[in-house]
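Ticket #4471: structure export looks truncated?
Reporter: QA, pipeline team
Priority: medium

Steps to reproduce: submit the single chain below to the structure queue and open the exported record.
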Amino acid sequence: MLKKELLAPAGDVEAGYAALYYGADAVYLGLQKFSARATAENFSETQLNEFVGYAHSLKRKVYVAVNTLVQQHELSDLLETLDICLRCQVDGVIIQDLGVARIVRESYPQLEMHASTQMAVHNKEGALALQKLGFKRVVVARELSLAEIKEIAAIPGLETEAFIHGALCYSYSGMCLFSAMEYGKSANRGKCLYPCRALFNGEKGNKHYFSMKDMALEEDVLKLPIMSLKIEGRKKTALYVAAVTDYYRRILDGKGADAHNADNIKQIFSRPWCKFHFKGKDKNIVDRDFVGHRGLEVGMVSAVSKDKFSFKPTHKIARYDGLQLDVPGLEKPFGFSLQQLKVNGKNVFVAKAGEMAEILLPKSHPEICKGMKVYLASASEVKGAYDYCKPRPGSFRQKEGIEVQVEILRDKISAGCKGKSVCVAGQWEKAQNPEQVRAAVEKAFAKCGETPWALNGLELKNPHELFVPVSVLNDLRRQLYEALPVETAHGVLPKTAPIYQPKTYGQWLIKTDNPSCLEKIDLHDFAEVLLQIDETSACNDWANIPQHKIRICLPDVCRNMALMKQKIDELWAKGFRKWEISNYWGLEALPSKGIDLSFDSRLYVMNQQAMCEAKNIGCSRVSLNVEDTLQNWQDLLKNAVLPCVLPIYQNPVLFTSAVCIRENSCKDCKREDKRLHLEAQGQVYEGISHNCLTRLWSVKPFYALSALKQLQAPYLRVDFVYQPYLAEEAAEIWQKIKNKAEINNSSEANLQKDKVF
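Actual output as written to the record:
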């Protein structure tokens, strides 16, 4: 069995060196572009070059996250990023975009492909589909149980990677449009503003309904039968990375979960810990009352006076440590620096565990009450507990090996390499020792200094056995190395299929999960009716829809594949041949022959290369991304190799979550649909809990009126999904869209922006 890989994050080079020092087997990081943590410091090419050189000297690995969606105009920049990965000899690239995968597979075969968690691999079928597309490793969704992870890990020839510690998203990664649609900053493009952690007004009052606790599997990592154990945290400090890496290194090395080190992590940065759904469905995974860093719980307020409170800490505290208290009514715990500390009425620097400590509050403080929890949010002692070493700058720089040819003639000496040559004129004397001349030439050209070159070999021609001064050799070397071209590009975009020429434009499609809402709409207006199903769908209310117009839409999440395949088989037997998928598992679950397959916008086609890959897979049509800009839609239509669908009207699902909004236990659940109504910052949201999934959308629909008026596309689509549309309401909306009329309180999201996000 392969040794488990401890994979640590690095948002900057310091965190990378800390990770290696404290035992990471591999480090993942981002460059200046196409990183899903775009607001991290990330790495320059020079930093990556040296870091990879150092990691490889330790026999460790480095993976680069190229895991954002790429727009059409960015493809040349993408090649530059992949060139850097190739030049720096990284061990793999982490990918979300199907177009990036195609480019890497075809033009950068030396780079190993890892499927990002943004690809939402949550079942065996999704993993198998990506393996067939050339991925060597998949990062499984955080939502999975141990049993589900084991099923994916059993796939022969496929490496699996799973998160074991760090922040959690409420949504399945890669399925969240919240930040993009509401604030113009896309999680799929690395700029998430984390609106899920905001305060919402709902049925339980003002709460953080979607603010997740942190994952901490601790010793349960030993149960994982996977290749790579991944720590989240590319926006965390080097101190945090050091502490968490050290903690799990000790567990993997058989030393157990050290309570002292766990306390250190909680003081550096931590929300309350949970194991998510690792051991099965768990509802105690959301921290509704507070957001952000909490710290290590160290006691409870036992007495309060005017500007002081007393408590008996369970962990030593010191002057200048940071304390926080849970104060009802505040979004975040109230925090302050401990400036004065007393024990038994005397000023002290340290209060030991078990001593009654008196704490001076800052002048501006909320009301503190007896019984409030106290947290140690930062400690000077911990800040100095994780020193690490790093190499001298430049000492592990990776250089390109070169072969140099030198020729010494009576009136000149010349040097050549990589098609370039330079020479120095002169008159040379006969050498007393020709072998010493060879040694001198080799020594001179081996001095590569700050250049990107390393001398791999030297061919010397000295037919007259002449002597050349060292100063001349050095001058010749400098001239040659300055003249050598630095290779800036290796890859090219793979050839594309012929541009698609539509025979007709503007054919309408309509999608729903509730056929009754279409009763007052003339279906002659539509080329197809797309019917959204899941494992629980009855599929018995389609009688009024001509079967030749029906396209069956599979859900983005499927956690019961046996039931889903049974549903697929039943519909296939009834003659349904047109299908649409919104997650890669659909490629494996559906028959491979005799099918008309289309991609929903959830499979994110934002560049021509992604469209080409969809065509190679067997897709007949793609839907464009509702996060995108009008300009990129236009670019894609101009460069389309497949028919494109413009999503004109819908209430986009802002997130799809495996976190249940119900408070009852799972064993007591009747599993009836439960709807929710929430408000935040003047915006109104609605959602539904259905089939153990929670979905949320804005009541303000997306309506691409400008695209409807300005762009020509083969297909246009209107969606009535998840919301309980009445037939009259749906018909009224359709008439406005058909007439290109305004719809009040609608949004075009990012369509009018020059660029996204």
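Status: closed, not a bug. The export was complete when the record was re-opened. Leaving a note from the reviewer for reference: The chain has a mean pLDDT of 95.
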